[in-house]
Amino acid sequence: MNLDTFVFMSISGTIDSIKMILSQGRLNDAYALLRKYFDSTIINVYTNLYLNDHFSWDNLIVEQIEDWRSGKQTMPEYRIISKYIHESKKTEYITTLLRQDNRYRRIRERCNDHTHYNFYRHVVFNINEIHNPKRVQALNQFQEDLIAIFIQHLSYSFCLNDHYMMSSDYIDYLDAGMVPVEGSQYWVSPFVQKVFDDYIKKYRPEIASAIKERTAMELQ
Amino acid sequence: MIDSFSKHNLENEYFEHAVFDNLEDISNFYDSLSHNIISFLDQGTNHY
Q1: Do A142 and B36 touch (CB under 8 A)?
Q2: What are phi and psi of A59, to 5 degrees?
Q3: Residue A149's closest chain B neighbor by CA?
Q4: Cβ of B45 under 8 Å from any chain A Cβ?
Q5: Are A8 and B33 within 8 A, CB to CB?
Q6: Does A1 contact B23 at a Cβ distance shorter than 8 Å?
Q7: Residue A68 near residue A76 (C-beta atoms within 8 A)
């Protein structure tokens, strides 16, 4: 197990919680969890990028991440970790594409507006007993926001850890005591290819092309 | 579970919305990714 395995399991739980709450018609509460999902993904990208920048054979313990993991220190605030990601050369090609419009700023504003009841209109989106002619329209927006956050996380993850996409074939060969087929370390897991097709290619083809250009992994 | 009172007052279009499939896809993806990493992680060489 590493940091990411636990973080991904936890995020999966948050997504399940969103589904449960949305099923109850509590769209306003679901936005509070969507904000948490957004934060979780940025923290995950930051920890990976920070480790990528600081981890080496001469520095096996990266103090800031170790202190966060052991409970000695909190994660820096969102503004700081977001700035760190946005100013990194390693993630620049993804950041440039993600920030070509202001959609992520607007998503955070919507999340905050719902979480903090910044406007009265947000109150009614948590009431499931009344007919709300704007409910489905708001759900359309929620769907768009959810997908955008997922794409942002996937894009950065594939940029920083493209080996995460690897299919099990390479390891299966080794486990069986066989020499892996040449190049099998670049084969992509079907579940990864599926979300790449269904989300990144479908909604952000320019990001899909950029990832394919820069990775050794054999994405279709 | 969706109680009958709430369901009655929410629109069918809401419950049949594709976002529920998206949430299923995304949750399953993170679970699969986590297990994929576990399968190839070399715990002896990667502290994190």
Answers
A1: no
A2: -140, 70
A3: B26
A4: no
A5: yes
A6: no
A7: no
Predicted-complex ipTM score: 0.92
* Closest CA relative to residue A7, chosen from A55, A52, A46: A46
Question: Residue A147 belongs to what H/E stretch?
Answer: helix A135-160
Summarised one tens digit per residue, pLDDT across range A94-110 is: 999 999 999 999 999 99
Contact A1 B30 (CB under 8 A): no
CA distance A4 to chain B (A): 7
What is the length of chain A?
220
* C-alpha A216 chain-centroid distance: 21
Tell me the C-alpha distance between A175 and A79, whole Å.
44
pLDDT in tens, A132-171: 889 999 999 999 999 999 999 999 999 999 988 999 888 8
**A188 phi and psi, to 5 degrees?**
-105, 140
The tokens describing B23, both together, are: 């949430």
Class of residue A135 by CB neighbours under 10 A (exposed 0-12, middle 13-18, buried 19+):
buried
